[in-house]
Amino acid sequence: MFCNQCEESSKGLACTVAGVCGKKPRVAALQDVLLHVVKDLSIYADAARKAGTSDAEVNYFTDEALFATGTNVNFDPQRLQGLINRGIQLIDRLQAQTIQSGANLAGATATYQSNAELPDLIQLGEDLGHVTNGAADVDIRSLQQVVVYGIKGVAAYAHHARLLGQEDEQIYEYIHRALAALADKDLELNEWLDLVLECGKVNLRVMELLDTANTTAFGHPTPTSVPLGHRAGRCILISGHDLQDLFRLLEQTEGKGIYVYTHGEMLPAHGYPELKKFKHFYGHYGTAWQNQKKEFAQFPGAILVTTNCIQQPQSSYADNIFTTGPVAWPGVEHVTNDDFGPVIARALALPGYESDKDRGQVMVGFAHQAVLGVADQIIEAVKKGDIRHFLLVGGCDGSRSGRNYYTELVEKTPADTVVLTLACGKFRFFDKQLGDIGGIPRLLDVGQCNDAYSAIQIAVALAQAFQCGVNDLPLSMILSWYEQKAVSILLTLLYLGIKDIRLGPTLPAFISPGVLEVLVKTYGLKPITTPEQDLADILG
Ligand code: FSO
Ligand code: SF4
Q1: N or C: which end of the chain has fewer CB within 10 A?
Q2: What are the tens digits of pLDDT across the range 371-405?
Q3: In the prediction, which pLDDT does 400 show?
Q4: Upper half-sphere CA count for residue 381 (Cβ side, 13 Å)
C-alpha cells in the first residue's frame, strides 16, 4: 500500500505496511481501485459534459465515492466493493453514451470486470497502485496529489450540501475535469498549479453552498452556552459533522426519555436554532476524534458516528456504536435511510447516566452572522486599541505530541487579543476561560471545519470595514491540519491570496521541496515554530 494523504502518514512520508489510522493494506487497495474508477468515470463524465450532458447520478456518486476514500471514513471492504461496482456500472453507461456522441476520450483506457470478487479487486488495487503513479516528475506528482486530496475535501463538503438541497454544476464540472487530467501526460507544471488554485476557488463555492444549506435548514447559529456535564437518564452520543443526521436523530428520540449529546465536530450544532429547540438535546461529551477509544468506552449509552473520524472500535463499546452515511467500519451496524431505530433501541437497553453532573459550560455559535452582528463593537475596540490582534487558531486535532503547540499558543495570547477557532483542533483549548474584551469573548468558536466559510466571511467583512485587504488586517492564521478537508480549506485561503499562514504540526508529506518553495515564495506559507517565537513574530 501507499498512502500519504494525512498528517499522520508513517515517518512523515507514507503508510506502506499498514495505516497509522488503522487502514489495512486490503482496504487501501480497494480505495485505490475506487479512486481509479472515479478517475476513469471522470474522463467519460468530462467528455459527456463537453458534449452537453451532465448525469446527476454520476455527479452524486463521484462525491460519495471520493468522500469514502478520505481519512478515517470508510474502512469496510464490502461497502467499498459496492461503491466500486456502482462506479463500474456508471462507467459502462457513460461509455456507451460518450462513444455515441463522438466525444474525445483520449486517456480513457479503463477496462473493469463487473461484479468482481473481493480478492480480485484487492489484487487489482495492488497492481494499479496510487492514482498519481503515472507522473514521473516529482513536482507534478506532488501537485497531482494536492489536487486529488483537495478534491476529496471538496467532495465531502459537496456531499453534505447536496443532502440539504444545495448543489452547483460547476463543482462537478471541476472535479471531473481535474480528475480526468490525471490521464493527460502532457499537462505541465503550471497547468497543475492552476488546477490546484482552481480547487481552492471551487472549494470556496462549495463551502458557501454548505453554509447556505446549514443556515437555511437550521437557522443562523447564535451564541449558546453548552453544558459539558450530563443529566440522569438514557443517552445517545453523536459524532462527526452531519447536522441533518443530528436533526433526524433528535426528531426520532423526542419524548423517549433519551438525552442526546454531541461529540467532537458536532459541538457547534448546539448553536443552531432549529437544533437547540429540542429539549432533550442536552450537552457535549468528550474532546477530539483521537481520544474516542477512551471516551466512547466510558459513555453509558449508544454512539452514532456520522462522518470521519472513526477509529477501530474497542470491544468495550463495539456493541454500542453505529455508523451512517459515508462512514463505515466492518462489523459495525450501519444505519441507512435516516432510520435511527437500532441506535435508539440500543440506548434504551443501556443504563445511561445514574445522576446529574455539572462539569461547566463552553460557548459556541460565533458564526459569521453572530460575529458580524456585533461588528461595530469589534471595530470600535480595534480603533481604541482594546483589541490589538486577531488570531485564527483553527484546524484539525490529532495524536502527535507537537499539537500541544496550539494549547500553549492560545494560553500565552495576551489579554488584548481575540482568538477565533474552528474544527476539532479547538478541543486543545475550548474550555479555557480567556475572559472578554468589553463584552466580546476572547475565544470565539466559529464552528466545524465545515464552517471555514464563516471565518472567511468575518475576515472579508473586517477588511471592508477597515478599507484594507485581508492581509493588511491585524489578523494571523495559525492552522493545524490532519485530513483532506483541511487541504481543501488551505487551498481556498491560498486562492484568496492570504499570506503568511502558519501551518503545523508538520508540513504535508505530499508537498515536494520544489512545490514547497513555490508556496513559501508566493504565499509566505511557514511551518509553526514555538508558541513564544510565533507570538513574538506575529505581535511584533
Ligand atoms: Fe476534525 Fe476529523 Fe473536521 Fe476533519 S473530526 S479531522 S478536517 O475529519 O473534519 O476537523
Ligand atoms: Fe496513513 Fe493517513 Fe493514509 Fe491512514 S490516511 S493510511 S494514517 S497516510
Answers
A1: C
A2: 999 999 999 999 999 999 999 999 999 998 889 99
A3: 86
A4: 23
Cut 0.90: pTM above it = yes
Ligand 1 pocket member 421 (CB < 6 A): no
Three-state secondary-structure class, residue 252: helix
Tell which atom from ligand 2 comes closest to the C-alpha of 4.
Answer: 8
State whether the beta carbon of 6 lies less than 6 angstroms from ligand 2: yes
Tell me, in angstroms, the distance from the centre of ligand 1 to residue 110's CA: 33
Query: Which residue is closest in CA terms to ligand 1's atom 6?
Result: 396
* pLDDT value of residue 104: 65
Any idea where the domains of the chain sit in the sequence? 10-217, 224-349, 371-539
pLDDT per residue over 120-139, tens digit each?
Answer: 999 999 999 999 998 999 99
440 close to 381: Cβ distance less than 8 angstroms: yes
- pLDDT tier at 109, thresholds 50, 70, 90: low
pLDDT > 80? residue 101: no
Give the ligand 1 atom nearest the CA of 484: 7
Interior angle at CA 320, CA 28 and CA 240, nearest 5? 55
The letter for the amino acid at 199 is C
Please tell me if the CB atom of residue 242 comes closer than 6 angstroms to any atom of ligand 1.
Answer: no
Fold of 371-539: Rossmann fold (3.40.50)
Q: Is 488 in the pocket of ligand 1 (CB under 6 A)?
A: no
Are 69 and 484 a contacting pair, CB within 8 Å? no
Residue-wise pLDDT tens digits, 147-199: 999 999 999 999 999 999 999 999 999 999 999 999 999 999 999 999 999 99
Class of domain 224-349: alpha beta
Residue 396 Cβ < 6 Å to ligand 1: yes
Residue type, 291: N
- H helices within 25-168, ranges in order? 25-50, 56-68, 77-101, 118-128, 138-163
Scanning the structure block, which residue is given the C-alpha cell 494560553?
Answer: 411
> For residues 218 and 64, what is the distance between their CA atoms, to the nearest angstrom?
23
Ligand 2 center from residue 36 Cα (angstroms): 18
| CATH number at 10-217 | 1.20.1270.20
